[in-house]
Amino acid sequence: MNLDIGEKIKELRTKNNLTLNDLSSRTNLSIGYLSQLERGLTSVAIDTLDNIAKALGVTIYYFLSKPKNKKNFILRSYEREVLEVENNRIIQIQLTNDIEGKNLLPRIFEILPSSSDEEITSYPHIGEEFVYVLEGILTLLIDKERYELFPGDSAHYSSNREHNWTNNTNRIVKILTVHTPNLFKK
């Protein structure tokens, strides 16, 4: 996902004849950060991506894969679709048919194992998050503290706190999440 977003940012920036310095001035983000973002070397918080989108004259939806919207409030298990695959390690599965106009964004994430010595970047953004561990052991980072969550454990926190999560085991971790705001709400 980071590389896809970065490529889209670079494509729009060059299409608009903007340098990294120009975009930096418009967004108050460092040139180094923007360069890393364009190369897919760092992640971006939703509010930062929204800031970049406005500076480039598009909406945030330009950078996000929009889920299919069906006006049925029931989604059968066999109808679920993969919303996105991030870095070949995190699979997002859509849990609702009718995503537009809703405040909540429910998803299941399947997180493949990663090395415990990989650096995990925590970031804040607007909204709140609820995480429920279905399978495996999730490492949750909040305000530089690490928490191990086991099946049946949950966490509910304000997204404006520095946070992220990862899988430092050798087994798949599956979590149910509910986020606000719903990025796909119109």
From TrEMBL:
Coiled coil: none annotated. Residues 9-63 form the HTH cro/C1-type domain. SMART domains: HTH_XRE (SM00530). Pfam families: Cupin_2 (PF07883), HTH_3 (PF01381). InterPro entries: Cro/C1-type_HTH, Cupin_2, Lambda_DNA-bd_dom_sf, RmlC-like_jellyroll, RmlC_Cupin_sf, TransReg_Diox_bact_type. Keywords: DNA-binding. This is XRE family transcriptional regulator. It comes from Clostridium aromativorans.
